[in-house]
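Lecture 7 notes: from sequence to structure.

We start with a single chain of 453 residues. Read the sequence below before looking at the structure.
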Amino acid sequence: MDTARPEILAHAERAAQAAAQMRARASAPEPIALHKSTSNLFRDRREDGRRRLDLGDMRHVIGADAQAGWVDVEGMITYEDLVAWTLPRGRMPAVVPQLKTITVGGACAGVGIEATSFRHGLVHDTLQEIEVLLPQGDIVVCTPGNEHSDLFFGFPNSYGTLGYALRLRIGTLEVQPMVHVEYQACADGEAFFEALAVQCRGDADFVDAVVFGEHEHVLSVGRFTREAPWRSDYSFKHIYYQSLRSRQQDYLSTQDYLWRWDTDWFWCSKNFGAQHPLVRRLLGRERLNSRTYTRWMRLNARWQLTQRLASWRGRYRESVIQDVDIPLERAAEFLAFLQREIGILPIWVCPVRGEVAGRQFPLYRLAAAPLYINFGFWDVIESPLSFEPGHFNRLIEKEVMRLGGIKSLYSESFFTPGEFAQAYDLAEYERLKARYDPRGRAPHLYDKCVLRA
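Now the structure, written as tokens:
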């Protein structure tokens, strides 16, 4: 790396300021926490008045090498800003998570996925180097082969409990201006997963799918193309997921394809009435996005409006917002469980490449199969019956573990300590914690992700 370049010098100055912030908080009794103006975590955090670390300035592109296929970025840059920088240069991050406000650091400290994941894995599978601010204020650079390789592989799925990413080098891909998308409808679940696996072995650039019902599965296969006979626009009047049920093919600009789910938060905008044509016109294009819906969701959580209404109506209400990864050979079994026991529709389906030799990430292992299937399902279950808190989420967790899968931790979790230790290699996590946060300045992973510390 050319350390004399202005971008690198500016980053070094910002990193030094971040480290000074961290050291100033190192003696405080409260555990450290990160201030973020936006968040894509769907679990409540304790509002305990602690002073939060502000890394908001760490949002720049530092440099890139198109020939080597990487870009250096700061941890707080959003994918919206990063894509806006890479696309004019004919590149895109190898995996671009679905929502514009997700940060690169957040996608690596958590789990990021999209329709290129069948070939390139999760966001952290594209990671080449990471600069981490440790809880005591030290900065270490981690690569797969240096003295901090354990933190390089242990950082994904650590959710800030081992430190924060100041700089990341992630993989990029060459792009074309347009994406040609073809849709294949399958009535039978077994045939659907077989067809999905076939497409993952082919020449597609993007593969994902949506389950609309027991006998309605729509496989989506995208390929880059230089020209197109038309271009669809799903950023305002038209709703992308609805088009899957009526079209056999479509053309979107590469930018619009990458953000095809953001306009309606997949399909969750319906919960705010935003899919009604009049409401869409009143909101306008600039407010139809995940940033708006997330803000509204957090206001509702703060004021407990829908919960109070459900209680007044005598209804049990449980939020089920989950993404889980299941080995391909057990995917049909898990889908049957979802339809039988949970009943949330639609369901997003995204194939994910399993881990490769020499790149095992211990806190999020995808080791049991060459291909996993991610199921994303996000809604509220209402029932006239009363259940213990987390009833449906617990059913999901137990089934995921039974089938040899793993669950993302961005949302509510109800694991017992023993279950959590088994699912996320807590022994390796404790070793990392002892080396990189020996004084326990950051919360413990179980405390943060299950106990909401």
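The mean pLDDT is 93. Keep this in mind for problem set 3.
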